[in-house]
Amino acid sequence: MHDLGGMPGFGPVERDLDEPVFHETWEGRIFGILQELAPKGLLEPYGLRAAIESLDSPQYLESSYYERWLLVIEKSLLEKGWLGEQELRSRAAQLRSRSEGEPTPPVDAGLRDRTLHMLLSRDSPHREIGISPRFHVGDTIIVRKTRPPRHTRLPKYTRGKRGEIVKYYGVHDFHDVPSEGRALGPQPVYNVRFEARELWGDIAESNQSVHLDMWESYLGPA
Amino acid sequence: MSADHSHSHSSSHKSDPALRTRALESLLVEKGLLSSEAVDALTQAYEQDIGPLNGAQVVARAWVDPDYKKRLLQNGTEAIAELGFSGREGSEIVVLESTSSVHNMVVCTLCSCYPWPVLGLPPNWYKSNAYRSRAVLEPRKVLKEFGLDLDDSVDIKVWDSTADIRYMVLPQRPEGTEHLSEAELVPLVTRDAMIGVAKVRPVGG
After folding, report:
1. pTM of the model
2. Could A214 and B162 be called an inter-chain contact, meaning their C-beta atoms sit closer than 8 Å?
3. How many other β-carbons are positioned within 10 Å of the β-carbon of residue A153?
4. B97 touches chain A (CB under 8 A)
5. Tens digits of per-residue pLDDT, A37-62?
């Protein structure tokens, strides 16, 4: 349900012209809670995206963005035994009658600096592994139509389509989770360009292309 | 994993998210699994310190300094880090130059991938089902709804952030800004222009 690229039927994009970063206090709390608990393993082994994708379709479509996060956090806390269902219910019942309390004051400068330092610290998606890329800039490829794995970063709208390699990014970690068997290790990643007409046929707008970043196992030679 | 787990929560999934959040936060704090202050610091970081002003500074620098622009287009991550911006959800950032003949637009159809170090957290519309589905399918129509009517001769490139690379648009410098200093250019650069759903308006325009 999350694989929405090209899906028809959605109307105008609704926008608030001046929206706050978090529309509700609880959204900010959920954001922060996830940032804190993810490094402690809450969403292991498959991570946040795979967890959200495993929500059933009605839950996915009916929930707002941060409601999906809340759902997967609750699920993971219970499944991992970090919290119990009964205690969550009782606590919610206790808090129901209590007001939310004052907005939180700014944190002290030391904590602010340490937090920023942590958020700014650099990582790289590159893996220095001696794998030669199979494809090169300018090659035409066709996106493979394999059985969809449990979690993938390959949008359905590209399956079976012809595209052109426009950039090689090097070897990156591969995050797909197979439905069975072991996950594949790091692979070459390419930026691939698809003409709109190739993707959408006659309804395609003029002079348009879509670029996607694709791991090598998504691609086959033309 | 079976779908059974979802049923035990279906009774609660429509109930008050604020209450559910307060309940789990207070229990996690009691059990020593979470510090509320750490959560405060994280929300405040993205409310106050990490936002589109970062990206606007990158764009203004590129507009006034041709060597910086060259470095930015060659290796976005390093050039952006020169200004002190880096880290989470931006381990590799590619900067896309829009011109009068090529217009770049960024989306994440699968979820909400977005270059946090330069733009902060994404707005709701970027994460909406409508934008995610339509940006790749009919970008011209979407841009028109956003108030940007591009001639048919303009090449539109839509970048779907499917891997770990994050994208930011370097919008065109508007006409009539030649006399402005770098600092004066910064406030002109909007978040929407750096996502690619708007152009930067000229001063007074």
Report:
1. 0.94
2. yes
3. 23
4. no
5. 999 999 998 899 999 999 988 888 88
